[in-house]
């Protein structure tokens, strides 16, 4: 990329004071050091206003462009892999389930656009880029504490945007299956297999037997394709699955076996290492009404 162009670019970040949502408007060069594989305990709406990039979402890579909206479910691994144009302007919004539920009504469920199981849990939408910019025009007018009601008006604009997104999903006209960049078809199939069999041990030997390749090949290609070792990827998927199950069953003694762990002590150690808290502490934190606490990566 042209260095002069890089110097002219600036980052415009809006961080809301709310502990239930945050809004970021970014116009800068994507830093590969910041685009780490990551996940959240809350939802993300990622909108591209200008430029093109390659995005990784829960095991698959695809290109995004102006007008692309990603509805990213909590706990789905994702990252921007690379920037494909000089400019990449994007808006990403983080929302807790509690905020969406609290802003919903009997007739209007704002969380619905993130619903769905399996591969369709996170969604890709495509609309006219100018229309998307228009719908997001409110984000650069930050609430002013000296102006009575400005925070409420801002939040109302955010809710209107969420209503619009839900309407898009309901119409199904703007939802699209992105053209996946297949770097290694066999590894892609392994990732799908892992996602569908998280209650199994999922060892290298199991994959070697099912996919007719050596574990040395799997080890090398998995790291190359996902950025994780095979063991790291499986462990992250299992532990993220465990968090989902904990919210449902409220008991780690019930959950660990469903995630393919041979013993509770092994599960407890792995969970604490990944999330820096025990399952019991996670459940307590979740009951306290989960708040946004975002260590700023590129979304």
From TrEMBL:
Highest taxon, organism lineage: Bacteria
Q: List residues of the HTH araC/xylS-type domain.
A: 188-285
The yes or no answer to whether the keyword RNA-binding is present is no
Question: What's an example of a GO molecular-function annotation for this chain?
Answer: DNA-binding transcription factor activity
Which SUPFAM superfamilies does the record cross-reference, listed alphabetically? Homeodomain-like, Regulatory protein AraC
Which PROSITE patterns does the entry mention?
Answer: HTH_ARAC_FAMILY_2 (PS01124)
Listed A to Z, the keywords are: DNA-binding, Transcription, Transcription regulation
InterPro entries cross-referenced by the UniProt entry? AraC-bd (IPR003313), Homeodomain-like_sf (IPR009057), HTH-like (IPR037923), HTH_AraC (IPR018060), RmlC-like_jellyroll (IPR014710)
On whether DNA-binding is a keyword of this UniProt record, the answer is yes
Pfam families from the UniProt entry = AraC_binding, HTH_18
UniProt cross-references to Gene3D superfamilies, sorted A to Z: Homeodomain-like, Jelly Rolls
| Record-given protein name | AraC family transcriptional regulator
| Lineage summary | Bacteria, Bacillati, Bacillota, Bacilli, Lactobacillales
């Amino acid at each position: 990329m042209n260095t002069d162009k890089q110097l002219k670019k600036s980052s415009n970040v809006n961080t809301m004071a709310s502990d239930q949502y945050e809004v970021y408007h970014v116009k800068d060069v994507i830093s590969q050091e910041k685009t780490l594989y990551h996940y959240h305990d809350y939802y993300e709406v990622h909108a591209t206003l200008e430029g093109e990039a390659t995005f990784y979402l829960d095991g698959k890579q695809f290109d995004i462009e102006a007008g692309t909206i990603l509805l990213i479910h909590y706990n789905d691994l994702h990252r921007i892999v690379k920037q494909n144009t000089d400019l990449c302007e994007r808006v990403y919004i983080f929302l807790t389930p509690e905020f969406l539920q609290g802003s919903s009504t009997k007739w209007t469920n704002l969380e619905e656009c993130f619903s769905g199981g399996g591969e369709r849990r996170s969604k890709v939408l495509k609309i006219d880029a100018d229309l998307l910019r228009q719908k997001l025009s409110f984000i650069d007018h930050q609430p002013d504490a000296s102006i009575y009601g400005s925070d409420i008006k801002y939040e109302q604009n955010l809710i209107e945007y969420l209503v619009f997104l839900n309407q898009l999903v309901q119409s199904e006209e703007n939802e699209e299956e992105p053209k996946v960049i297949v770097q290694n078809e066999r590894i892609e199939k392994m990732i799908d297999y892992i996602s569908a069999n998280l209650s199994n041990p999922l060892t290298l030997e199991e994959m070697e037997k099912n996919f007719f390749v050596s574990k040395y090949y799997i080890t090398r290609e998995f790291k190359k394709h996902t950025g994780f070792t095979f063991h790291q990827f499986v462990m992250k998927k299992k532990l993220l699955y465990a968090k989902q199950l904990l919210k449902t069953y409220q008991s780690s003694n019930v959950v660990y076996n469903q995630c393919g762990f041979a013993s509770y002590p092994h599960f407890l150690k792995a969970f604490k290492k990944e999330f820096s808290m025990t399952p019991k502490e996670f459940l307590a934190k979740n009951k306290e009404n989960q708040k946004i606490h975002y260590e700023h990566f590129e979304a």
